[in-house]
Amino acid sequence: MHVTPRRRGARASIASVITIIVLWTLLWGDPSVGNLLGGALIAAAVLFALPMTRIRFSGTLRPWPALQLIARFHVDLVLASWHVSVLAFRWRHTPKGAIIGVKLRCANDLVLTSVAQICALVPGTLVVDAHRLTGTLYLHVLDLAGSGGAEKVRADTLELEGRVLRAIGSRADLERAGLVGESR
């Protein structure tokens, strides 16, 4: 069965409306008719008054690498939170921060955004800028010495990009990044 782009867009919009209604109802904690209608109004306002640019997804969702990505994110989150809390309680120590540019191997919008969001969610790292055309992320690192230096931060970010590509990248993206023959 061939689905036209217009039908695919309508299906995505309907799925988005249903998702927003469900989330709205869960936030209120009461599946009343008023909350369902309120959720529908919010969904209509968000999706039709403020349309988002569509991102083409040409990859494949791979469940096992996606689970590994999520698990490693949680480990990184706990470790970085511990590191930042230790820094907060060290008296007379001023961490030396730095802004580091990391050129990603895949300039795909979805991969760039995913890597940037995961980096931004981990304490101690902040995305200062993302250059879409070159696929470069500029990261502010709170404690450069505690993070292992600039090259370690770059290597860790490229490793994160590899995990994202293994989870959602296309075969062509994996080949461009040199990740096809790896066993991880």
TrEMBL record:
TM segment ranges: 12-29, 35-53
A GO term from the CC aspect: plasma membrane
Membrane topology reported for the UniProt record: Multi-pass membrane protein
Compartments where found: Cell membrane
GO MF annotation, one: monoatomic cation transmembrane transporter activity
Pfam families referenced in this protein's UniProt entry, alphabetically: MNHE
Source domain of life: Bacteria
Signal sequence bounds: none
Keyword line: Cell membrane, Membrane, Transmembrane, Transmembrane helix
Family in the record: Belongs to the CPA3 antiporters (TC 2.A.63) subunit E family.
Protein name: Multisubunit sodium/proton antiporter MrpE subunit
Organism: Rarobacter incanus
